[in-house]
Amino acid sequence: MRDPLLAAELVRLGRALGVPAPRVEFLAHLPLADLRLLRERVSAALHDRHRPALGRMATASRLLPIGVLATIAARTMPPVLAAGIAAELAPERAAELATRLDHGYLAEVCVALDPRRAAVIVTHMPAALVLTVAAELVRRKDHLTLARFVGPAPEATVRAVLDGLTDADLLRTATFVESDADLARAIALLAPSRLAAAVSYGRSRGGVAAAATETLVRRLDLA
Amino acid sequence: MEEARAELRRRLGDEVAPVLGALTDEQAAELRALYRAAVDERRTTMADAQERSLALVPALLRPAVRKVLGA
């Protein structure tokens, strides 16, 4: 059974490169730390490459009322572009823009956000909107993006997001939380009985779910 | 295939040199191909979307927006 954290890292690298995880399977022999470093550098390089142009677009967007900007984004911008511009905006304006966007489109923008900027934007988004996007991400089974909400969001929001997850979704999301400290902080918000139920569920399922469960337990011990 | 490693190191930074050193020539070439494809995809997406976005900017504001964009 492959280490769930290594499998998660392959998914992240594939996401950064715009390909499914099996396309980067040839890198699965790398140690987890090396794979993580490679993914971080690939993601940063791809996001940074267009920053000057995106910065100009963000500057130009300040000339427009937020409603007009939201209309233009929804009608003409693929999520990757809207995410790039949002990353260059002040977090308050990016969060305000988020409130004007269709939830499905907003979820896709969150998927494409530079992970280094996602945290600060999420902290400025209204809790209700974070919950709505989280529900959409769960519906899409996008646990990778959902996990990015777990670290930075306010505790009440994180608790509400986690409470809305099934045991299976909770285990999958936990696997994608990068930082052991963020994971421990989030899990500490759950009722002990809820964590026990999720662990019991994972162990009873065997296979990938059991491996994710044992990884979660190990990381909570380490954190 | 040292050139694939050299290009990736130039684009991703010196800190990944040891990681790239652990790849075979074929793996380095495959990673470079994926990276180049991702760069091309983003470049095309950005350029197309910028043009379509400008068409929706209110006419009164368009010259100022074009000026900021350098478009």
Explain this structure.
The complex is a heterodimer of chains A (223) and B (71). Chain A is an all-alpha fold. Chain A contains 15 helices and no strands. In chain A, helix 4 crosses helix 6 and helix 12 packs across helix 14. The two termini of chain A are 23 Å apart. In chain B, 79% of the residues lie in helices and 0% in strands. The chains are: A mainly alpha (223), B mainly alpha (71). At the A-B interface, helix 2, helix 3, helix 4 and helix 5 of A face helix 3 and helix 4 of B.
Shape of chain B: elongated
Q: What is the strand tally of chain B?
A: 0
Strands of chain A, total number: 0
Which range best describes the helical content of chain A: under 10%, 10-25%, 25-40%, 40-55%, 55-70% or over 70%? over 70%
Write the layout of secondary structure elements.
The complex is a heterodimer of chains A (223) and B (71).
Chain A: H1 4-17, H2 32-49, H3 51-61, H4 66-76, H5 79-88, H6 91-99, H7 103-112, H8 115-124, H9 127-139, H10 143-150, H11 155-163, H12 167-176, H13 180-187, H14 192-205, H15 207-222
Helix pairs in contact in A: 1-2, 3-5, 4-6, 5-7, 6-8, 7-9, 9-10, 9-11, 10-12, 12-14, 12-15, 14-15
Chain B: H1 2-12, H2 17-21, H3 25-56, H4 62-69
Helix pairs in contact in B: 1-3
What is this entry, summarized?
Chain A has 223 residues and is mainly alpha-helical.
Main attributes?
heterodimer; A: 223 residues; mainly alpha; 15 helices; 0% strand; globular; B: 71 residues; 4 helices
